[in-house]
Design a protein that fits this description.
Rossmann fold, 16 helices, 4-stranded antiparallel β-sheet, 43% helix, alpha/beta, elongated, single chain
Length: 485
């Protein structure tokens, strides 16, 4: 199939052609791990998880490499450690920062898992790639693209002036005129940005040719992407707020060490999130984290569905009405699948039998620049299926959109929490085995009689590739089977 993606750098939709179809590579900027992920942090995770799923579907799961980093070198992380020390914690600042980073990463995994996001192939921490950053900075200095000044190392924007600003569509002169940047006396140009900065003895730092210090934010992603994906790879993505200066600076420092046509070949950016029509802000009282919603009982698949209802390149508005609508849609879709006998066991059987088939139209719509609203419209059509076989594309589509965090969710029956007596399951399994033997010997009358017995007791039986599975239906009454014990 053909995938088209809107390339921010070229400002147009382009047919996606990977550098190597056997090794499709994508880098997405991840979180700075100092606190819980808020709702806006989650949008790029969901958006580019859908892209990851689409790429895996198209090229094969073993042929796609997805990298999303953790920034664990940051002044805000340092502040959390310093606060703990001031509160009386006797451990070293380094130990406190490491503990906070580990804790925040665990929170992040827990929350993003709840939204149905697949884990990337690699989740590098900035602190694990300091050596690669130092090497890249040294190369930039040697090529006259960077300079040392008062313990800092800065990228010289004038050395890349012809290309700088192409991603964000700005000229250097325009950026300087409207700049709100710190114009330090050691900067040659107000737009020069920090690659390395000194650390005091009470802050985390690493040895370098320029003294003890720590890296600037932008160099981190460049070094990690190069090390894990190579000098040139397919897709770089993130929120629109990262387009400038972060992604612009990544391009500059990376291309200055490897060549102007290197680094990412496609740039994707998702638009920002609002809450009830307003920018999310603590001062407005409309700021909340993913965990806040999950703890209030909003299922992860509902949060995800609200995100997917808006195209990723349009601003998204989280509202209470949309949440309620999404809750109903999820309940209807899952209810339809449950009614037709879908369960985690049956899905496994369908996959093993090669009967896990996708809907061509849905995948085609999704391949048109991640048109998730169009894909959801197709989901509504597929939900009208009247047989198990007709509903397989619905189940496949829900999985492809990440709306099923785990197929075990379909095992939840109306009798959840009601314990069956020990004899019930073995008896039903035995009746199914007898029915299978009758079918094998073409004793259709006996096979139909056994199915009628099970159906009369409210047992929902599903046949996939000659193998039967069952689950209790809404009118399940084991007492009707007791005479067969």
């Amino acid at each position: 199939m053909t995938i088209t993606l809107y390339d921010t750098k070229q400002r147009r939709k382009r047919e996606f052609t990977p550098l190597d179809a056997e090794n499709v590579r994508m880098y997405v900027c991840g979180p700075t791990v100092y606190d819980r992920a808020h709702l806006g942090n989650a949008r790029p995770v969901v958006v580019f998880d859908v892209l990851y799923r689409l790429l895996r579907h198209t090229y094969g799961a073993d042929h796609v490499t997805y990298v999303r980093n953790f920034t664990d070198v940051d002044d805000r992380i340092n502040e959390t450690g310093l606060k703990r020390k001031k509160a009386g914690d006797s451990r070293s600042l380094e130990a406190l920062i490491t503990e906070r980073s580990d804790q925040t990463i665990a929170w992040y995994h827990e929350d993003m898992d709840a939204l149905g996001a697949l884990r990337p192939n690699f989740e590098p921490r900035a602190t694990e790639f300091i050596a690669q950053m130092v090497t890249m900075i040294s190369e930039l200095i040697a090529a006259d693209h960077a300079y040392e000044a008062e313990g800092h190392v800065l990228f010289a924007v004038d050395s890349w002036r012809e290309h700088y600003g192409k991603l964000s569509g700005r000229s250097v002169d325009d950026m300087i005129a409207g700049a709100r940047v710190e114009i330090a006396p050691y900067k040659r140009n107000p737009m020069d940005f920090v690659l390395w900065k000194p650390s005091t003895e009470d802050l985390p730092g690493w040895d370098s040719p320029w003294g003890r210090g720590r890296p600037g934010w932008h160099i981190e992603c460049s070094a990690m992407a190069k090390d894990l994906l190579g000098e040139t790879f397919d897709i770089h993505a993130g929120g629109l707020d990262l387009q400038f200066p972060h992604h612009e600076n990544e391009i500059a420092q990376s291309c200055c060490t490897t060549g102007p046509e290197s680094f990412a070949q496609y740039w994707l950016h998702n638009e920002m999130l609002q809450v009830e029509g307003k920018k999310m802000s603590k001062s407005l009282g409309n700021f909340f984290t993913v965990r806040d919603l999950l703890d209030k009982g909003v299922p992860g698949e509902v949060i995800r569905l609200v995100f997917l209802q808006t195209h990723y390149r349009k601003p998204m508005d989280w509202t209470a009405i949309r949440q309620k609508e999404a809750e109903k849609m999820v309940a209807d879709w899952f209810g339809t699948l449950q009614k037709h006998g879908f369960s985690s066991k049956m899905v496994r059987m369908l996959k093993d039998a090669g009967e896990w088939t996708h809907d061509v139209e849905l995948v085609g719509v999704l391949g048109n620049d991640l048109n998730t609203p169009g894909a959801l419209a197709r989901i509504h059509v597929l939900a009208n299926g009247r047989t198990t076989a007709a509903l397989v594309p619905l189940a496949h589509g829900l999985e492809m959109l990440g709306l099923v965090p785990d197929w075990d969710i379909l095992d939840l029956s109306p009798l959840q929490g009601v314990e069956m007596q020990d004899w019930v399951k073995p008896l039903i399994d035995d009746l199914l085995a007898q029915r299978q033997m009758a079918r094998a010997s073409k004793d259709w009358a006996e096979a139909d009689r056994l199915r009628d017995v099970l159906t009369g007791a409210g047992v929902q039986v599903t046949d996939v590739s000659g193998t039967a599975s069952w689950q209790p239906g809404p009118d399940f009454d084991p007492a009707k089977l007791e005479v067969l014990k």
